[in-house]
Structures are given as structure tokens and as C-alpha cells.
Amino acid sequence: MSRLRTAVRAAASVSVLTAAVLTAPQAVAAEQPAPVAAAANVCGTGYTLRKAIPLPLGTDPGERLATLFAYENGGKGCVILDNNVGRSRYMFVQVCKVGGTSCDKNSGNFSEYAGPVYVSGFACAPVTAKMGTSSSSLYIDYKSDYVFPCG
After folding, report:
1. Pick from 105, 59, 50, 116: which is nearest to 84 by CA?
2. Would you say the pTM of this structure is higher than 0.70?
3. What is the rounded (10 degree) CA torsion for 62, 115, 53, 8?
């Protein structure tokens, strides 16, 4: 598990993540192919990085508290919420089909990551990521329908 943790951290710390939202995941894969591939293995074989989002939004990537990783494999999507704090925190990650049906979620206190969670037919799939000292004391409450492409 520690090799995976190192790989996920390395993928999250590449210089390409200086933007608030990574829009060119191929650049991360080209710059750090081994860590990106290792992190994708959390989802399973064949998944490729689609997007990495430093959270909370608007935070300098060097000071982020978490990173939301989105991967795809054909028509399937996978999401992981990486804990960048280094201590156990309440974390929640969920992905649903459009319309909020068929949701897959993972929550609890984690020191490394929440997920992976999966969705088939991921176009415009709503993604929710939360993190805090408890479920009632959140410092990240992120929701988006645009983590995966729409059409």
C-alpha cells in the first residue's frame, strides 16, 4: 500500500498541477508515467487519468488538502479522493450516473484516500468529494457534473 501512496503523491505533485484544474492530463502521464499508472491501478487495469483537481478549489496546488483523481476506461469512470493532509480525516467520495441514480460512494476516516468509486456511462456523471475533521465539520465540499466529459 505504501508504494501506491507514494505513486499517488508523486502524480499529485507534478508541476502540471499548478493550475486550479488540470485540463491536460496527458501532460501528467507524459511527465510521470509510472506514478500515474500506479495510481490508476487502484481503479484496476486499463484506466487512464482524465483529470486531477486540487481541492479546495482556488487553493495553490502546493497547499492543497486533497486531490480528486478521475480515470476512465472505455465507457467506465473511476474516482479517488487523495488525502494530502497526512493525517486521518473524514472523507467522502461519490459518483453517480446522470440524474443521480446508481451512485457508488465510499466514506469514513482515511489517512490515504477514499475510493475508488465507479460509474458506467460516465458522461456528465455528478461527482461529490468531501473532507473535514468530521462529517459535520467539512473544509472541502466539492460537487461537479463536469469532472467527466459531457458528450
Report:
1. 59
2. yes
3. 50
